[in-house]
Structure to design on (271 residues):
């Protein structure tokens, strides 16, 4: 009798499991959209990365450069003739000319001519970072006294807070590689704590020391206006080649002869 009761109980339980499974199959559990949670997590992670960048704990490393597939057609004629830095500088207008106290960055199009500069400098630090993918130019005050409230290269804390923090924005925005070059234009010595801080910061991103150049400018006084003279002027020029096969990047600093020249293929890879 007990055996029959036990078998009946087992049969009842089995039937209940089968009925429950059938109900779940025909009425599946409601699927809920968790994208809001994912987005919140992503936002939190991005915020953490941004804080890390500002505090110097994390840096987006420059990617390894790809060898460009470059040809050697002549550059577009009307572009190659524009070698006079005063003429180049005079043609740069609007947002492509970085005022003091700001940082500008731009992506480069191998099929589109572009030129960038700063307001004329005579007591400032200018950091120019160039690559076939983009250009970053920071223009930071250096003189003090009078009505000035500027950064000096002998103040490491000020350099870190007012130069490096702003420079990070462009460095993180442009897809740079380990062939990227930088020119630190200033009136200080390479032994100054400010200059060393900028170099160390660029190296944290993966920039090679051999690609970081110090330039002490000629213009050290005045009102920042040197009409008809290369003094106080720096220009980055991006000149496409015929057929859309690539472009040439040049950096002029207070001279008609470029201090940096490099060819890039149609994808912005260095030749």
């Amino acid at each position: 009798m007990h055996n029959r009761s036990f078998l009946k109980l087992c049969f009842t339980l089995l039937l209940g499991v089968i009925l429950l499974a059938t109900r779940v199959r025909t009425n599946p559990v409601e699927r809920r959209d968790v994208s809001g949670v994912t987005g919140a997590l992503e936002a939190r992670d991005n915020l953490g990365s941004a804080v890390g960048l500002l505090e110097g704990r994390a840096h987006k490393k420059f990617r390894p450069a790809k060898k460009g597939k470059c040809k050697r057609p002549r550059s577009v004629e009307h572009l190659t003739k524009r070698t006079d830095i005063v003429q180049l500088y005079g043609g740069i207008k609007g947002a492509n000319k970085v005022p003091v106290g700001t940082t500008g960055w731009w992506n480069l199009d191998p099929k589109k001519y572009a030129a960038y500069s700063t307001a004329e400098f005579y007591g400032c630090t200018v950091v120019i970072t160039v690559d076939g993918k983009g250009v970053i130019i920071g223009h930071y005050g250096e003189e003090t006294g009078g009505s000035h409230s500027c950064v000096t290269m002998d103040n490491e804390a000020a350099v870190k807070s007012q130069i490096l923090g702003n420079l990070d924005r462009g460095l993180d925005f442009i897809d740079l590689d380990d062939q990227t070059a930088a020119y630190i234009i200033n009136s200080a010595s390479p032994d100054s704590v400010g200059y060393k801080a900028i170099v160390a910061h660029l190296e944290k991103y993966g920039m090679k020391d051999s690609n970081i150049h110090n330039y002490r400018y000629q213009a050290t006084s005045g009102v920042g206006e040197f009409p008809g003279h290369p003094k106080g002027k720096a220009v980055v020029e991006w000149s496409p080649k015929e057929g859309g096969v690539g472009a040439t990047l040049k950096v002029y600093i207070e001279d008609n002869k470029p201090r940096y020249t490099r060819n890039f293929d149609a994808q912005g890879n260095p030749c």
About this structure: Confidence is low (pLDDT under 50) at residues 20-57, 73-82, 144-148. The longest strand covers residues 134-141. The two ends are 92 Å apart (CA to CA).
